[in-house]
Amino acid sequence: MRIDLWSSLLLAAVPASFLLLTGCAGSAHEGTEKYILVADNTKIPYWQTAVQGLHRAAGEMQVKSELQGSDNHDPQGERDAFRRALAEKPTGILVSATNAALLTPEIDSAIDQNIPVITIDSDAPESKRLFFVGTDNYNTGIMGGKMTAKLLNGKGNVVFYTINGQSNLKDRLQGYQSAFADHTEVKTLQVVDMNGNSDLAFDSAKKLLDSKAKVDAFICLEALACSAVADVVNRSGMAGKVTIVAMDTDPGTVDWINKGVISATIAQKPYTMAYYGTKLLDDIHHHPLNPLTGWDKRVFSPIPSFVDTGERGQFSAAAA
Predict the structure, then answer these.
(1) CATH number for domain 137-267, candidates 3.10.310.30, 3.40.50.1010, 3.40.50.2300, 3.40.50.300
(2) What is the torsional sign of CA 117, 281, 115, 94?
(3) Cα–Cα distances in Å, from 159 out to 22, 50, 144, 187?
(4) How many C-alpha atoms does 52 have within 13 Å on its Cβ side?
(5) Buried b (16+ CB within 10 A) or exposed e, 250-264
(6) Does 29-135+269-312 carry CATH code 3.90.226.10?
């Protein structure tokens, strides 16, 4: 009896799982299909890279795609953009939840209207979103912590730059702190909320260096801060004396790495997040889930809880 029961469960699970693995081969796409990516601070290079992935996936499938969101860091503006996207009744929505508390009711509303939502880059784990596609942010923090400890030879005071309310940045900070638990002489001096504004990062770094605070390393948990911090360090004549560990590969960050002012960065894959997330939304559209949610609580689920798109560390020539 047990063997028959498990066999029937397996047979029931295989077809749906197989569809996700094989994609939409052989399925016709309708001209009305549209996938929308909603993000915050959409003008920065990170999201311009992601939108290339969105449009590439849509182009391959000959469907419509669009990026919506606030031009600057504006969680309320991102929520409004999500509402506008939902009003269009798109085929599916990708969203990076800058403020999960604000966006969770909006995501739940979309799901309740049978519009699939996948989070990318920054998750809203308490929402009804189907799953998350992006970086394992805690492990990214572990990687960054080990890199920083190595660059500091296991000793020094560090200052973090973050944006309060973003779950991905919170996870990265926890990862760093866990890594530093093995290096007890690496101390956190301050955690600065730069609120998505590089000018605030610049002013904070300048104030710290002008005050002669004992800062051995600046660590940026997001993409914007470290170019500004590197500018301050360079102007202060502290290049090579203060370690900077950045996040992502914006042109400004890469430029400061090449100049030897930023010691290292951790690169994500925003293009992959948007490209693969769009393909997965399309697959769910052509092979609908019934019910749409609740699969994370089931053993035989046709969808994952998390798709890890990976990350890699990159050192400057001087620090390598």
Answers:
(1) 3.40.50.2300
(2) positive
(3) 46, 28, 13, 9
(4) 10
(5) bebbbebbeeebbbb
(6) no
Tokens of 191: 């955690």
- Rounded CA separation 222/57 (Å): 26
Torsion angle defined by CA atoms of residues 223, 176, 200 and 207, in that order, rounded to the nearest 10 degrees: -130
Residue pLDDT, tens place only, 98-123: 999 999 999 999 999 999 999 999 99
**In whole angstroms, what is the distance from residue 172 CA to residue 34 CA?**
33
Pairing of strands 312-315, 264-267: antiparallel
| 114: β partners | none
pLDDT tens-digit map of 73-87: 999 999 999 999 999
Q: What is the pTM of this model?
A: 0.87
What do you get for the CA distance between the two ends of the chain, in Å? 61
